[in-house]
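User: If only I could read backbone structure tokens as easily as an amino acid sequence. Underneath my words sits a plain record pairing an amino acid chain with its backbone structure tokens. This is the protein in question:
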Amino acid sequence: MVLFQPTMEKFGIEVNRDTITGYINDLCKAAAVTRESLGIFAGARAELYFGGVWSSVSFDKIGKLAEKGTDIVCIEKQGVPEVLTEWADKYGIALLNSRGHLTEYGKDLMDVARRSGAIVVLMVDYDLPGTKIA
């Protein structure tokens, strides 16, 4: 016997990650705000690698991080940037690791870098998260 049933389930709404994130995304779109502006972040945040150092991408670091490297390669897959660090160090390229979900700060970093003259490219899977990032 079930003594407590969450309200959403009472109405036949399946409670899972996709349902909840769907509602959050719909509300953000309707209110014209980002998830990050509400303090909601994906588990993995964007990180930038340059010159042997990994830096977490945050609002107050965007301008400084955008100056790193001549170019930025945004990579969706976790683990891939680590394989490319030697190459990135050799050619002065920064690697932005989004781990599958590019945050607003990651997008802002790419925009600021592009406006300052950097070449910004994406490496993503050809799947739904990858095409959304692209």
